[in-house]
Design brief:
Distance between the termini: 42 Å
Shape: elongated
Radius of gyration: 31 Å
Largest sheet: 5 strands, mixed
Strand content: 5-15%
Length: 317
Amino acid sequence: MKKRDENSPKVFSSIMTLRIIFIYVCLSAVWIFLTDSTMGKFFALTEHKIWIVIFKAWSYVMLTSVFLYFLINKAIYFINLAKEEAENANKLKTEFLAQISHEIRMPVAISMGHTTIIKDQLGSMLTPEIIKSINAIESADKRLIRTVEMILDMSEIQLGTYRANFAELDLMNEIFGEIKDGFTNQCKEKGIEFSIVNKSKDSRIYGDKKSIRLIIINLIENAIKFTKKGSVEVIIEKNEKEKVNIIVSDTGIGIAQDFLTKIFEPFIQEDHGYSRRFEGNGLGLSLVKKYCELNKAEISVESEKGKGSKFIVSFSN
C-alpha cells in the first residue's frame, strides 16, 4: 500500500483556509466601515476615539481569523484524510475482488475440465440422466464465472480503474464477425432464429472495442435468454443524423412499462426472489449503460409485455 504523504493534506488545507480567511477579512473591513460609520469620519483620524474603535474592531477580526484558520484547516485536513482512507478502502475492495475471483475461477476451471474428460472418455457409456447432470454442472460453472466477471467489470467502472483504448473500428468485421457463429448456434439449439442485418455501407465508429463488444454481447444474450420462440434480430444502420445505430430486437416476454425506468439500475430484475423464472444477477444492462456512457453513446429501449423488446444503441459521429 502506498505510504500517505503527511504534508500534502496540510498544504492543501492551508491554501484553502487562507483563501477563506482573506474573503472573511475583506467582508469584515466593509462591515467595520459601514456599521461604525468610520467611512464618514475617515478624515478625522486624529481623534483618539476613532483609533480606539478601529483597533477594537480589527482586533476582533484578527482574533476570529486566527480561530477560523485553525478550525477550517483542521476540518479540511480531516476531510482529506477521510477521502484518502475511502480511496484506500476502494483499492482494497478491488484487490479483494481480484483475489476472490482467482480463488473461484480455479476450482470452477477444474470442475469444467473434469466434466469434459468424463464426457469424452466414457462417451456412450453415459446414461441420458448422467449426461443431463453433467450438462447442468457445466451450465452452473459457466454461470458462476460469468457472475464473477460481471462483478469485476462493474467494480472497474465504478472505481474508475477501467482502461479504455479508443480507436476507429468496424463493427461488422471486427465485432459481429467474431461473435456471429456463437450466437447462431446458441439460437439454433433453442429453436429460435438469429440474424444480423447490415443496412449501412459504413459501420465504422470511434470507441473502445472491449466495452463496445460487451455492450453488444450483453444485449444479444439478454434477447436470447428472454425469447422462448420467434427470433432475435440485430440491425446496423445509420439514422437521420448519420449516427451508427445498433438495434437488438426480440420476440420475447417483453418488459412492463412501469419497470422500464429501472431497467438500467444495478441488481434490479423484473422477476425477483426465489420464484423468478430467469437466472441472472441484474448487472448486465447496468454495465451496458455504463459502457455506453464511456463511449459517449446513447441507449434507449422500447418494449411491451408479451410482445418483445427493442434496444437501440446510438454512437456519436
